[in-house]
Design brief:
By secondary structure, the protein is of the alpha/beta class. It contains 14 helices and twelve strands. The strands form two sheets. Strands 2-1-3-4-5-11 form a six-stranded parallel beta sheet, sandwiched between helices. Strands 7-6-8-9-10-12 form a six-stranded mixed beta sheet, sandwiched between helices. Strand 1, helix 5 and strand 2 form a beta-alpha-beta unit. Helix 2 crosses helix 3.
Length: about 350
């Protein structure tokens, strides 16, 4: 008995992309005749059939949008969902929310489930494990099956779909410049591993601000945190350095709030001894002591834009649709954790 064949397996057999296989099976002249015939013959031999449920999506609307988020405790994702829900309700749509728990396997399972004809399109923020594996074939397969996808916050540049991101570079630059303007000159960053795109981009903004003000970039001030369970240990190590920083930029508010807690424990005054600034203006930022200065990335506006883009693509699938990236601006919410050292 022949095994079930998929676009991914055909692509692997011929060492080409899933997009190339999809185009060859549609007899696209973008693909050479020789390659087209080989792929079509192989697919015919193994009785390849397109995802019929996905094909039905193009013609029968479910009035439901799927949303996949990496974690549920993060205030930012709650804001994005509220923006999606607001726009969906206005258009008579329902929203189905799934959780990947930062897992590649769970993300793939969620997308497979949502693609079985129960949603008109999928809005997703990519899981950390997916970014670490650098394997995005599940996105390519769904796009080849004609299912609209919008990525937000954590996005994959190589995947051709609509994307909505915050101005992470500008936000990182803004946060670091604020600390410099307030008189802090030894500034550390608490960030993610480089494979997490948002953390890497925010760090690039941090580095640019230091360079613009002729401040030395110190490698021992760049703290990459892989797991939340390791946050406290890494920050304690930073504060115990022989030449500790007098300012910290954290790329999310959990890192920032933990830094405030550990600075208090060490007997440091905030902001007199050390100033701390975070990213994402959530509830944690308002209720830390002292209250946390932070970069606001406007999750609700991001969610509204995500829905606008997915609905536009759902309604225009029969046209030559042009994907693009929307950038949501960031701004600074100045509170007590950075006031004022001169």
């Amino acid at each position: 008995m022949k095994t079930k064949i998929t676009l991914k397996k055909i692509a692997k057999e011929f060492d080409v992309s899933i997009s190339t296989v999809s185009k060859a099976l549609k007899d696209s002249h973008e693909i050479s005749e020789e390659v087209r015939e080989k792929i079509k013959a192989f697919a015919a031999y193994y009785h390849y059939k397109p995802n019929s449920l996905a094909l039905n999506l193009r013609n029968q609307k479910t009035k439901t949008i799927g949303v996949i988020i990496p974690e549920i405790v993060h205030h930012f994702f709650a804001k994005v969902i509220s923006g999606i829900e607001k726009k969906a309700n206005e258009q008579g749509y329902n929203v189905m929310i799934c959780l990947s728990n930062e897992s590649y396997e769970k993300e793939v399972l969620n997308m497979e489930m949502l693609s079985k004809g129960i949603v008109d399109g999928i809005i997703i923020s990519v899981a950390k494990e997916t970014e670490a594996k650098d394997d995005y074939t599940h996105f390519e397969e769904l796009i080849s099956d004609g299912i609209p996808i919008v990525m937000f916050d954590r996005v994959v540049e190589k995947i051709k779909c609509n994307k909505v991101i915050a101005d992470d570079f500008g936000g990182g630059f803004l946060a670091t410049k604020h600390l410099i303007d307030e008189g802090f000159d030894k500034i550390a960053i608490l960030t993610t591993p480089d494979y997490v795109t948002v953390g890497k981009t925010r760090m690039e903004g941090y580095i640019k601000a230091l360079e613009n003000h002729q401040l030395k970039i110190q490698n021992d001030y760049i703290i990459r945190i892989d797991e939340y369970s390791d946050v406290a240990r890494q920050i304690e190590k930073l504060l115990q350095q022989e030449n500790p920083p007098n300012g910290i930029f954290a790329v999310n508010e959990i890192y920032a709030a933990t830094a405030i807690q550990l600075a208090h424990k060490k007997g440091l005054k905030i902001p007199e001894d050390i100033a701390i600034i975070g990213f994402t203006d959530g509830l944690i930022s308002s209720f830390t002591y002292p209250s946390l200065t932070t970069v606001a990335q406007h999750g609700r506006a991001m969610g509204e834009k995500c829905f606008d883009l997915i609905l536009n693509e759902v309604n225009n699938q029969d046209t030559q649709y042009q994907h693009h990236t929307e950038v949501i601006g960031t701004d600074l919410k100045v509170r007590e954790s950075t006031k004022v050292l001169k």
